[in-house]
Amino acid sequence: MSMKFEDLSICVIFGGQSNEHEISAQSASYIINLLKEANAKNIYQLGISKEGNCFLFHGRVDQVKDGSWLNDPNNQTVLFKLGEKGQGFYVEEDNQLNWYDVDVFFPVLHGQNGEDGTIQGLFDMLNANFVGCGVLSSAVSMDKVISRMLFDYAGIPQAEWTWLKKKEYLSNKDKAVENIEAELAYPVFVKPANAGSSVGINKAYDRKDLENSLDLAFNYDSKVVIEAGIIGREIELAIIEDPDLEDNIFVSEAGEIIPDRDFYDYESKYISQDSELIIPASLTDDQLKTLHEYAKTAFNLVDGEGLSRADFFIEKSTGKILLNEINTLPGFTAISMYPKLIQHSGYNPIKLIKTLINSAIN
Predict the structure, then answer these.
(1) Nearest Cα to 41, choosing from 90, 4, 15, 16?
(2) Domain 161-228 has what CATH class?
(3) Does domain 5-130 have CATH number 3.60.70.12?
(4) Interstrand relation of 104-107 and 88-93 (parallel, antiparallel or unpaired)
(5) What CA–CA distances, in Å, run from 285 to 109, 156, 258?
(6) Which CA distances in Å does 165 have to 100, 173, 298?
(7) pLDDT, tens digit (0-9, with 9 covering 90-100), for 263-318
(8) What tens digit of pLDDT does each residue of 137-160 get?
(9) Is the alpha carbon torsion for 206, 212, 216, 222 positive or negative?
């Protein structure tokens, strides 16, 4: 990067309208602290309320983390102007608009309107540099139907799956359920196609479970994915785009999650402290090589940039490696897998944050 890291204006955007609003605030506070440790002097904190209002917040990082930033009387309304030559935003101050220059936006927004390509589209319209995957990559990876079709096309093994639209389901529930049962054996997982962090996901052991799970998942999205239940180990790898490397992509050590319940859901990811993370996972050289290949292939296939986390299963009965998903804006809290994996693989916190900013500018 031509400018020194310390002199860059970095704008961290957090909160958002998705059901992962609180997790976003936790991730953002972790990232803001890392930026401060790395000696970034100009950090702007933009918070988006659940109603979608955007404010410049001047207060302390712990207020970002606990959500109290929203009640700060000094919050200022932020306005974006499309096609503006400089990158940045306006703020209303004393009945006039003041301009804030930004070198890099760092969206720390999980879920809808955050990692589905929408805010990335806004950055493109602002001609702005930003950390992470672009519009197409974010949208494709967020949509579990489209991404699974792509992974099938590329020959990356996955659990058997099918999908269903809400219209189809409501018009004839019995037929829809029978079609699923004809394709997949119980137990199955039912997932909204576009929700993150295991929100709205259920495991169904019989028809009644399946109907209840579909009703729940359709509260979150108009299409759902139904997958064969896999009995296996859960393995995750972190991916970072590093302009200093020859092929630009670094894939971390593999980590294994030992969930504290039947499957690794929202609560075991973010609230419970009882799930175990084992880094590095106990794997053969061949398994690790295959995981690395699939992670890289999946990242390139969705046109990934900046960072992602690739999640896999290793099926216990067959030893087969199956891709679960690629996550373009993984959790970034102190207990999240992404920072733990990447730091365990040689990117200390300062190097991690500087590499992400560097890849955004390049």
Answers:
(1) 4
(2) alpha beta
(3) no
(4) unpaired
(5) 35, 19, 21
(6) 44, 11, 25
(7) 545 555 544 566 788 999 999 999 999 999 999 999 999 999 999 999 999 999 99
(8) 999 999 999 999 999 999 999 999
(9) positive
